[in-house]
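OP here, attaching both records as promised.
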Amino acid sequence: MESEGFQRNVLQSLDQDARNGLTPIKLRAKSAKFAKATVKAQMASFKRFGVWADWDHPYLTLDPEYEAAQIEVFGQMVFKRYIYRRRKPVHWSPSSRTALAEAELEYPEVHVSKSMYAIFKLLTTPTKDGLLDEFPKLSLAIWTTTPWTIPANAAVAVNSKLQYAIVEVQSPSPDVTSSSEDGKKRIGSVLKGSKIPFFIVALDLLSTLESKWNVKLAVKKTVFGSDLENCRYAHPINGEECPVVIGGDYITTESGTGLVHTAPGHGQDDYITGLKYNLPIISPVDDEGKFTEEAGIFKGLDVLGDGNAAVIDHLDQLSSIIMVEPYKHKHPYDWRTKKPTTTAQWFASVEGFREAAMDAISQVVWTPSQGVVMGLQIPTRFEFYFASISDLSSPLQRLKNPSLHFNPSQLPVTHLPTRFTSLLGKYIFASLFFLFVSLDFVDVIAKLIMFSFSFSIYRINDGFGENPVKQPFECDD
């Protein structure tokens, strides 16, 4: 089946005039032709290298037989209830408009993010602590390299074993009242104000933060992270009450403030913490990497561009920003387009069949048995992969709707033709009826696809109107 990579290569080979009027079916036809030509060229190269293979029967994922086999396997997974409704984040590429597996990501060390130190106002604390009685204007100081995820904030996580300090800002440097315009550092409204609130930060990060913020921090009291659990703070944008929770070992004193802004819809560590505390999973980002209506005033803004800046500016107007500065670090990039990714999609599970997969691997006769791939012997590599893979790292399908629901009422008739333009559409078509049909029905669908029924569906879709293709659209690899 043609991947987004082939579609993108085809589009890049066409001028603007050729793109005008290019419908999905026409793009697929060109992509299939491009893919087959690429296979032919690669096959010729292998033959010149003396590679032995069954060249008359190549293994091609665009063959109807391959697609039919996928339908059969997917049908079995549905009936064995390996497909479930829990939502989970995976990497999503706005440039390719598809979910990405870990193997499809690159992590260049030259990416520069706008990191942000901000405060969230504390509202309540456990009655035994009485922190707000002693420090009425107390706030949690957080640090993040993804300000655009603040609209999805659901909690602040702390490390139960770390010591945290309630600090007061004293003797700010004269330079702290001015913002840098050269893009290197920007002092926020918090440090410019006449009444600076008390902050909570990790005790071990005190000297680091004094140096970064160019201030003197006086420790008024210390507490353990476990003492902060179940405190409540005001969401910096919508004002809703959110909890302070205990996170995992990912909360350290290597950087930041020791308090982690937690958005379960945008990261694996946050997601796991969210499951533990039953936090809402919010992901107000569409497949183009733009804020949705759920993000309120930020709707339509590019989260990695003007949307990120808009969130920072809005928080500064609300007197929540301590400081903004560039931060160079590794960041996931789409290996196809070399563009940053966001995490905004949710998929399924491998836990149900891990044991069966491991048993099957143990019965395989590998040739050559001592072959090495990526530093591991071939059998060991496959065993290691299936033993270590988790639900969080194995996206099963690529739906724009961020949940796995096989409910016909959620698929308007006007949208069905578009759904069928991907192999995923066939998955859904074969699975919508799983509550009242048998595997025999899925087998019938698989056989229809094997005999090019899928291409007939594309032709039907093409007849619903001329929809020029402006960018590569979604399809399953």
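Record two, same layout:
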Amino acid sequence: MLLLLFFAPPAAHAAPEPQAQAPATAQPAEAAPETAPIDSAKIGRDALKLLVGSCSHKDPEVRLEVAKAFGELGNSSAVRLLARMLKDKNLYVRLEAAYSMQILGDDRGFKEIASLVNAPRPPAPAPPAQAVKAPNPAEELAAIKRNKARAAAVEKLGLIGGVRSVEILEKTLNDPSDLVRDATSVALAKLGFDEFVAPIVSALKSKDEAVRAAAAKAMWQTGLAVGLDELRVACEDQAPAVRAEAMRALGNFPDPLVLEYLAKGLRDTNLTVRAMAVQSVGRVTGARSSQLLRTVVEEKVFPSIALRAVGSLARRGEKVDLKLVGDALEQNDPDVQLEAIEILRSVKTDDAIRLLEPFLRQGDAKVRIRAASVLVGKLASPGGRP
């Protein structure tokens, strides 16, 4: 039934009318089509079947990819499958399934996220008069994992917003876990509570480079165009981690003037800094940013950076050469393949479908799921075309 709800039946895709055949002597062999026509209905059904069949995959990271994909696709017929995934043993799979349900308009998603935020916490320390039990390493590790998942759930509340989210976040401001408290501050800043913005900007001046990097990352997470002077200084920081996060945060600013700082990042000696600068240049509109990206692609000094520049151009709707993307897909590196597949999500041609289709049958499981998700998104529309 889910397949039918995503895709029209094969009959809906009208077969081409027979064409009159020319005499054999008038049709040389070289005139045969270079590429076979795309059976979009079949590819779409195969892709969706792969997604549905992977809901119970043994690898939790694969199940998480599936849960995320159903939310991105935006079809409420997936809610039934997502509801089952709320019972997953893995906290992150449950969280992603819940968030996808929330996106699709099912309130059970929000309730599950709230439940994950309010998950059972470690008992309060024993009073001094009582014997103190030595910490159990296994219990401590479990508590850390649980609090990381709770912090991730808090981040989702920052994305969802609304009165109910704020009410929960007001409580987690005083949470025993610093991970949860920090995530809460970022979420509230993102939701427009100014009193939580200033401390983040101020932390960019810390003597601790880890704190400075975390502050720059938090500024990016808020999505706010604030602290430009502080970020400009952070772009020159001695620590690559700080420079990288500062470059990423500059992408929050729509003003083309930030391209002056980002252009320096494109020449940084650290590849992560360069990658973040490319990502942010792609978020700034205008001809100047497009030219910077095309220069990175043409130089091809670092293929991974050039690939990211191609992705930024594609997401802007600009025409790109898919050779670099095709080369990346041939690499035996799932992370590189995943990035290439994400680029193809924005490419509106049949060539993108041809590059993606083989990954329904080959490669790393996460790569196959990502390819399937992109294909379903492209082919679920009437007519089977992006």
